Amino acid sequence: MKFDEAYSGKVFIMAGQDYNQADAVIYGMPMDWTVSFRPGSRFGPGRIREASIGLEEYSPYLDKHLEEVSYFDAGDIPLPFGNAERSLTEIKNYVSKIVHDGKFPLGLGGEHLVTWPVIQAVHEMYPDMVLIHIDAHADLREEYEGEVLSHSTPIRKICELIGAHHVYSFGIRSGMREEFQFAKQSGMYMAKYNVFAPLREMLPKLAGKKVYVTIDIDVLDPAFAPGTGTAEAGGITSAEMLDVIQLIANANVEVIGADVVEVAPIYDHSEKTAIAASKFIREMLLGWVK
Questions:
Q1: Cα(195)–Cα(241) distance, rounded to whole angstroms?
Q2: Where in the sequence is the domain holding 237, given as residue range(s)?
Q3: Which end of the chain is more exposed for a tag (fewer CB within 10 A), N or C?
């Protein structure tokens, strides 16, 4: 995909045709090469775009219309099927271009490992960045079954890159004992089970910071998002996630990029997961892109 060409496939609703004039760039990362349970998240980006066609362009939550923000849908990054290492390199190079062009990168996953090369690219531009991680899973393993490239490892890798004290995780309700011990000992922040209340308490401490936000759709309870590879009971509602997005939008932080990952549409014939994800993307565009 060339950035100076409009994507010829299905795009997110009301996406513009001009990359150069866009403030934000939506792009897909259709990779699920390292999942530990159910594959299928590589089909997430396309289905989120398709579901967006059913959205209203106006958000009553933020009292804004999509015509008020300039964004371009670049389509999906062409990734080498099954090759995790090369795929991560392609993602990093792709996002580096977006970031260095001064645009807001808004990624659609794909498994959660795709966030790792995105953060590498963003960190090069913003070395003082912090991460807000919203997820059911800690993702703090060093490896899974001997494989260091796994969707259970990205937050551990990010801790090592930007410093654990710059990582803030919310909604965590699953992981190995060692992952929770690492969170306690490393200096990172972890809020178990809940998102809104601990995030509201923490955001004033991040005032003025440059923040990247990664959202794993499985932070939602499976009742609201069954279409994901590793569903975990006990999560938040889709309404609570909308409240979280608005909370960040109204906070004194600069959001410099974001992603929504782990939508696996094959497990949700009702399409509620993709519908929720597309609505989250709309709110992120309206609330976070300056």
A1: 8
A2: 24-288
A3: C
CB crowding 243-261: b at 16 or more within 10 Å, else e: bbbbebbebebebbbbbbb
Query: Domain of 130: which CATH number?
Result: 3.40.800.10
Length of the chain: 290
Cα–Cα distance, 180 to 68 (Å, whole number): 42
Q: With beta carbons less than 8 A apart as the criterion, state whether 115 and 68 touch.
A: no
Give the amino acid at 11.
V
Bind-site residues for Mn(2+): 112, 135, 137, 139, 216, 218
Residue spans of beta strands (DSSP E) within 80-196: 104-109, 130-134, 167-172, 189-192
Task: Please indicate, yes or no, whether the overall pTM of this predicted structure exceeds 0.90.
Answer: yes
List C-alpha distances in Å: 37 to 133, 152, 221, 262: 21, 11, 17, 12
Q: Residue 19 domain-assigned?
A: no
Give the residue ranges of the annotated binding site: 112, 135, 137, 139, 216, 218
What pLDDT digit, counting tens, does each position of 110-140 carry? 999 999 999 999 999 999 999 999 999 999 9
Domain assignment present for residue 8? The answer is no
Residue 67 falls inside a structural domain: yes
